[in-house]
């Protein structure tokens, strides 16, 4: 297990990031001057219409897509250095598991392919993480033998192997039914609570964003940009009881109104 001590310095700094795709008339600005700080130990959700650039923002922070302009630092390091040191864990929008490897081998894969990269980092036991995500009985199965929701959970478990200090999660619970989704949310919160990382979590669910987050970033589309950042001051640790509180409902109203304004503006 990693140290329970909270790191209060560092985090992710996104400064004036812009990104376009295409050329000439077909050129579209996907991210327009996006700036955002995520402190270590902070849980931030991103919500916004389809195509507003949520996944692109995560890919830029993860170093998978270069920004056209602007900078991203992770704990003061460049993205290149941070990815080399395995400081960033990414759960992509689709699980991207290797079909010929078992669940256990998929989760252990980053350790095997990157033996040299993990000096000085705490490596977690893949079996322990799989157990935490309710997959203890599935370690020897192949991805094709799992439901879509289980595959998503394997991808989440894989992101924890290097015990990254920053976790980027792109709609990780989208393939789950509501009951399981709630269970996984609570499981993730529990894990994060004892193991604080800077989290950037993309979702289309307003209750999910409120339940999990310290702050909710509402993005607008065409061009993709941050429209509003809403603080979630609900006390932690949070349980399902939070859904029934007045404060939760009030926040839900605020986020939904902000989203409606954003959607109206962009005609999505
Ligand atoms: N590799 C690429 N080449 C060209 N255009 C791209 C590429 N990746 C994304 N886009 C475009 O950038 C825009 C933003 O895409 P992105 O996947 O970031 O949206 P999103 O907010 O994650 O949407 P969703 O909620 O549907 O997942 C879209 O218009 C998409 O078509
Ligand atoms: Mg996306």
Automatic annotation (TrEMBL):
PROSITE patterns tied to this protein: ABC_TRANSPORTER_1 (PS00211), ABC_TRANSPORTER_2 (PS50893)
Keyword NAD part of the UniProt annotation: no
CDD domains registered for this protein in UniProt: ABC_NrtD_SsuB_transporters (cd03293)
Keywords: ATP-binding, Nucleotide-binding, Transport
Residues covered by the ABC transporter domain: 12-246
UniProt GO MF annotations: ATP binding; ATP hydrolysis activity
Pfam families: ABC_tran
Protein name: ABC transporter ATP-binding protein
